[in-house]
Structure to design on (276 residues):
């Protein structure tokens, strides 16, 4: 048995989270072609389209960074190279408040203030970050430094949920978290209350409610779970549980009332009208 090369393993995982790697995975899975064929397609796309796309590429707003993350629906333990990927745009620097934080507390205080929000922001867009993402793609430091930051954050608040890919087993299945959030909304909780109970960001909560709302709309048009999952680009397990919640609404008057409110106002509007 050969020795493990930790540094090489990190580089391999990082190389699996690039736009090229995401495209190759989509081609191999979608067209059932070989790695050689997928690379050939990628080369042609770059040759034909890239000269025209470069100047028109939209730039991320100031303070934000765009990167490729593992899809939040992927099971823990699955090799990153085999996982579905999503593009996420994250707010690293919030402006003057972070300038002041850097001045008074330094880089360490800045990282520890931003890590929870950045991880939640990625989750709200359907992605899960890793410590390597935070170290190499966001804060440009070592993974050891990120691990120390996370340990300190947990020491300060043991109940705080920081949704990293490595923590999926600790926080429970994300699928269950999403269903819990929708159930709380159907019980009449506001977005602000749900954020406090579930320790999720308003963006993540409104994203889940919006997905549930679209799921309900498609189901009411007669679509099946598999079709809805395909159209919404969500896992079938999540869609099935959303449909089970929809079925509960038919027998629970309270659920039905709040579902009607959710559908009438929309998840984001409902949250804003309650001050979130």
């Amino acid at each position: 048995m050969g020795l493990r090369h930790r540094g090489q393993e990190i580089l391999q995982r990082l190389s699996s989270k690039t736009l090229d790697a995401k495209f190759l995975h989509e081609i191999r899975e979608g067209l059932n072609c070989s790695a050689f064929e997928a690379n050939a397609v990628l080369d042609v796309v770059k040759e034909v389209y890239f000269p025209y796309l470069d100047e028109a590429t939209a730039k991320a707003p100031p303070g934000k960074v765009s990167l490729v993350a593992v899809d939040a629906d992927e099971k823990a333990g699955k090799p990153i190279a085999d996982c579905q990927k999503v593009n996420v745009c994250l707010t690293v620097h919030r402006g003057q408040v972070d300038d002041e934080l850097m001045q008074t507390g330094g880089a360490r205080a800045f990282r520890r203030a931003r890590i929870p929000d950045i991880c939640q922001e990625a989750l709200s867009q359907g992605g899960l970050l890793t410590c390597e993402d935070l170290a190499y793609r966001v804060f440009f430091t070592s993974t050891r430094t990120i691990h120390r930051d996370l340990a300190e954050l947990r020491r300060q608040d043991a109940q705080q949920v920081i949704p990293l890919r490595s923590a999926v087993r600790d926080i429970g299945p994300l699928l269950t978290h999403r269903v819990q959030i929708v159930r709380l909304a159907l019980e009449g909780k506001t977005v602000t209350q749900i954020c406090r109970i579930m320790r999720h960001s308003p963006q993540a909560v409104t994203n889940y409610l919006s997905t549930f709302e679209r799921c309900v709309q498609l189901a009411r048009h007669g679509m099946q779970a598999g079709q809805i999952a395909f159209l919404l680009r969500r896992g079938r397990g999540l869609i099935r549980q959303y449909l089970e919640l929809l079925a509960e609404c038919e027998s629970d008057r309270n659920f039905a009332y709040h579902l009607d409110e959710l559908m009438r106002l929309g998840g984001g509007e409902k949250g804003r009208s309650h001050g979130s």
